[in-house]
TrEMBL record:
Residues 300-569 form the Beta-lactamase-related domain. Keywords: Hydrolase, Signal. This is Serine hydrolase. Pfam families: Beta-lactamase (PF00144). It comes from the Bacteria. Coiled coil: none annotated. Residues 1-24 form the signal peptide. One of its GO terms (molecular function) is hydrolase activity.
């Protein structure tokens, strides 16, 4: 497949979820079955070391966007392209030639600002479109200018080649962004300049070439196409190791206050013992990459008493690099319900789902149980629809949904019923949470990225984000928002403060209280509110109530009300629940809760 081919997100997610015998498993120990090499093992020793591939697929258009108005005519220029604009009421739309990007914005009443989003074409790594915020400021009458910074369609992939004790050569893939590389472990052989990477437990084999003149290893890898790898030293492998170069013993520093709404303080200022936090961060720094699976923590942020007191990033991430929140961003769907209600939308938990899709026509005889389905059922994963993320045969499984090129709302509404709505046992269903977005869109008459920007991102002082879209251009609320961790943590602080951020009310206190209340049961020790997971955590003789937004790989926004504490982890352990659940079950109580002294 060519490197420019677009892979649908559903196909990519399915690929990453394939069993080990298809893709090549991560070895349980630091060993893989010895290769049946076609050449002496010492030929492949030329490849020993760290190889990095960093393909960039786009976007083609980014940079300074200038919008002009002459009478009733609107035009826009960016990156050498120019296109006409269309104004309807106060909504401006500009689409670049060849579908290379679209600007959708709202012209302010005073004409000084045009706030909106840049919608980029489908990306290679993930196969979806993203909407990123853009603010255009008036330079003079009829001229506005701002910066377009789309989601970077790039990928960093490390191929680490090493020798086993028996002298055979092995390799593993790692990447800091998507968890793609964790699926692969190889035996390595080389004959002449031809290289083979063979999965010892499955049919996967990659064949590439080594060019000794330029020190380049080229390997075609699935939908990514040919990846050109070059050698890196330890101190150059950003993302592979916790810190690059190695940082030595950890020294705590108070986070820096910025113009993003967070006040900062030291650990001691808020009554926390620095020693357990020091031990936690040092444990992360001491983690070495290897062929065996291990915790991959990319960020830890802690706020207490409304102040940010810990902000540490690892594996190539920093405070400005957007992180994929995965299903932790499902929690935004009920938040958007709350903000819509706050602004007067005719919406409530009791609203019948199908009543807000009046143009929907059922593809089959309607199941009478669908008339009972309400917004609350969707938010608590008790819809009764045949939609189960833990069942690959379920028609509502997220992979099946994301393989659809048509209207995902219609696809979800068409799903058969598997049970009656409202049963206390929840069934995890991304399609149902995404349908919440459709109800908000229809109740407000507003494009979801615009509603999110106006009612959440702006009042919470989000700096940057990238909102993933469905094929029809509407936002997908089943997960996958990219955000700065400092901004994502504000969601926990907002709910801890009863719906207020820095003195500004975003959602009602009543909505917060209703959202974090137990509504359904996921498992004996895990209950569910409105897209908030609920747990009890034990520290010594104390038991603390905790609620969280949680996502695949280790994306957590955690709230412990009794301790006035909000915590965020970001991670890269995608598809490895046994690893990322330890962030909450072990690291949070052992190091963070134990640090609270007063």
């Amino acid at each position: 497949m060519s490197p420019s081919a677009r892979a649908p997100l559903g196909a990519l997610l399915a690929l990453l979820a394939l069993p080990s015998y298809v893709l090549g498993a991560e070895p349980a120990k630091d060993s893989v079955e010895p290769a049946k090499v076609e050449a002496p093992a010492d030929a492949a020793t030329k490849l020993l070391g760290i190889w990095a591939g960093e393909p960039v697929f786009g976007p083609e258009i980014q940079g300074e966007l200038t919008v002009f108005r002459e009478g009733d005519t609107w035009r826009a220029r960016i990156a050498g392209y120019e296109a006409p604009g269309r104004l309807e009421k106060n909504a401006l739309t500009v689409t670049m030639p060849g579908g290379l990007g679209t600007f959708r914005g709202v012209v302010g009443i005073d004409g000084k600002l045009i706030r909106g989003h840049w919608v980029q074409p489908r990306v290679v790594v993930g196969g979806v479109q993203y909407a990123t915020p853009v603010e255009l400021r008036a330079l003079q009458k009829g001229v506005w200018r701002g910066q377009v910074t789309p989601w970077a369609d790039r990928f960093t992939l490390y191929l680490v080649v090493y020798a086993r004790p028996d002298g055979t050569i092995a390799a593993y893939l790692r990447d800091p962004e998507k968890g793609f590389g964790k699926q692969f472990a190889f035996n390595v052989s080389m004959q002449g300049n031809a290289v083979k990477l063979v999965d010892p437990r499955g049919p996967t084999m990659f064949e590439g070439t080594f060019d000794p003149r330029f020190g380049r290893l080229t390997v075609p890898i699935l939908f990514l196409g040919p990846i050109n790898f070059t050698k890196k030293e330890r101190d150059q492998a950003v993302g592979l190791y916790p810190r690059t170069p190695a940082s030595g013993p950890y020294a705590y520093r108070q986070p820096v206050a910025e113009q993003d709404g967070w006040a900062t303080a030291s650990l001691s200022d808020v009554g926390m013992d620095p020693a357990p936090i020091h031990a936690l961060v040092q444990r992360i720094l001491d983690t070495e990459p290897g062929p065996s699976a291990g915790p991959l923590i990319q960020g830890v942020l802690i706020a207490r008493k409304g102040k940010l007191v810990v902000e540490e990033y690892f594996h190539g991430f920093d405070k400005e690099r957007l992180h994929d929140l995965r299903s932790a961003s499902k929690t935004l769907a009920p938040v958007l319900v709350g903000t819509a209600m706050e602004q007067g939308a005719k919406l409530s938990p009791e609203t019948p789902v199908y009543s807000l899709f009046p143009s929907y026509k059922s593809a089959a005889p309607a199941d009478p149980r669908k008339a009972q389905l309400t917004l609350e059922h969707l938010m608590t994963m008790t819809s009764g629809l045949d939609c189960d993320e833990n069942n690959d045969e379920s028609p509502g499984n997220e992979n099946a949904l994301q393989d659809q090129e048509g209207d995902w709302y219609t696809y979800t509404l068409d799903l058969p019923m598997g049970r009656a709505p409202g049963e206390p046992q929840a069934v995890y269903c991304s399609a149902g949470m995404n349908l919440v977005g459709g109800m908000v869109r229809n109740a407000t008459g507003t494009w979801l990225p615009e509603h999110f920007a106006r009612t959440v991102a702006e009042p919470l002082q989000f700096r940057r984000y990238a909102m993933n879209l469905m094929p029809d251009g509407e936002a997908y609320l089943g997960g996958g928002l990219y955000a700065r961790p400092r901004d994502a943590l504000k969601l926990g602080q907002l709910y801890l403060a009863g719906g207020v951020w820095n003195g500004r009310r975003v959602v009602s206190k009543r909505w917060v209280e209703r959202s974090i209340t137990r509504h359904s049961v996921m498992s004996p020790d895990r209950t569910y509110g409105y897209a908030w997971w609920r747990h009890e955590l034990r520290v010594g003789e104390r038991v603390y109530a905790e609620y969280e937004a949680g996502g695949n790989g280790g994306q957590y926004v955690m709230v412990i009300p009794e301790l006035e504490l909000t915590v965020m982890f970001t991670g890269g352990n995608y598809g490895q629940f046994n690893l990322w659940k330890t962030f909450r079950e072990e690291l949070l109580p052992r190091y963070i809760l134990a640090a609270v002294r007063r």
